[in-house]
Amino acid sequence: MDLDRKLAILADAAKYDASCASSGTDRRDSVGGAGIGSTEGMGICHSYAPDGRCISLLKILLTNHCQYDCLYCVNRSSSNVARARFSVEEVVRLTLDFYRRNTIEGLFLSSGIIKSPDHTMEQVVRVAQTLREVHDFRGYIHLKTIPDASDELLRRAGRYADRLSINVEMPTEAGLKQLAPEKDTSAIHRSMGRLRLHIDEAREARASAGGSTGGSTGGLSVGSTVGSTGATTGTTAGEAPIRVIPGAAPRPARPPRFAPAGQSTQMIVGADDSDDCSILRSSAALYGRFRMRRVYYSAFSPIPDAARALPLKAPPLVREHRLYQADWLMRFYGFDHEEIVDDGTGLLRLDVDPKHAWALAHPERFPVDLNQAPRELLLRVPGLGVGSVDRLIAARRLRRVRAEDLRHMKLPVRRVLPFVIVDGHRPGAALPAATRASGAAHVDAGTGVVGGVVAAAPAQLGLFG
User: Fold this and answer.
1) For strand 449-450 and strand 453-454, is the pairing parallel, antiparallel, or unpaired?
2) For residues 220 and 245, is the Cβ–Cβ distance under 8 A?
3) What is the rounded CA–CA span in Å between residue 286 and residue 273?
4) Are the C-beta atoms of residues 162 and 25 closer than 8 Å to each other?
5) What's the gap between Cα 397 and its chain centre?
6) Rounded-to-integer distance, Cα 293 and Cα 315, Å
7) Which pTM value belongs to this model?
8) Inter-residue contact 355 to 386 (CB < 8 Å)
9) What pLDDT was estimated at residue 239?
10) Of 34, 103, 192, 228, which has the fewest beta carbons less than 10 angstroms from its beta carbon?
11) d(CA 188, CA 11)
């Protein structure tokens, strides 16, 4: 099979994995002629990282052969799909060729399980090792880690990759047993725990080295030796000459990095009967136990020859979107996962974003005085983000904030004003609680609800009055 055909098969097979943003890693580049690639800059394939940078990744599988038969996976062993397998050298060549054409800035590499977890993981690690050590590739590398791979392979993977990830697959252990009985939640969590341990150890070691002020080596260069009189000793063939600068501070070797962009995971939404409350509970546990950098949510997509245990249609994509918004509230806005979905249904509202839904469900917390409220409460006001809250706090140190100031700060005034008190504005009367709970559920997320008051449905303006 030629390389183009392999690429078509294995790039298409990798499209279901959503966890490929390249933010959060070390900044590296090849300015000055050293190495090839960088972790920043613009690519011609426009995908955007959470921090706003435009990035592009070559996203492929090493192989879509797999010994597991996960019911939700198009590459399961019983699936009737075209199969292909790259060699290590082919993936390296593709990555470098695409980079030289300015098509990509990095590599996202996953794989089906072949022979054993260790055999598969060793092949994946060899790709990253060859790129880094042989070709001095400095672009972004994300490796999908194989659960139950040996700790030594995990250590090697973290040395060469910017980010590592292990897919938790299903939100609950029961869902995983039902749809992927060959996979083990405990094994997945063990690998996540090992990665967290290695990441923490590397960060602590680098922090200690960065704060070091010296040791007993004086001005001795790394790797050099000095005789008893302090003079430079002779060197053997092939060794660099040894230099000693009296009184100079030592320069200890920098400890090696380990996956500087951390670890991430992905769970499938809508393949089992897990509700949004269960999904957010699982995510909160992953963030707390393993310091996960990111949890990705992937709406289930029906696959050919699907098992009867799977739903016949995909969940609405807006559900995936609402889960990302709720995840953002947990990570940056101080919300607890239990309070985001607290209406007894276990599901996020699809018509309004989770923050707006929480505000409508808790009228006793509003309106909020923008000139006096603490940061934690300001973050719960619909329409106010982390950056805008920080700007508000900075502005009110100088003088009291007025209603017209919100427009000058380019805040979404229609969303914010119904929930706040500010000089020159107090919100009007709100709807009864019963209307908030039921009637507001049918209002459009963007413009239909204004401080609990149902706005008129939007209408197209006429051309002739």
Assistant:
1) antiparallel
2) no
3) 20
4) yes
5) 35
6) 26
7) 0.77
8) no
9) 54
10) 228
11) 25
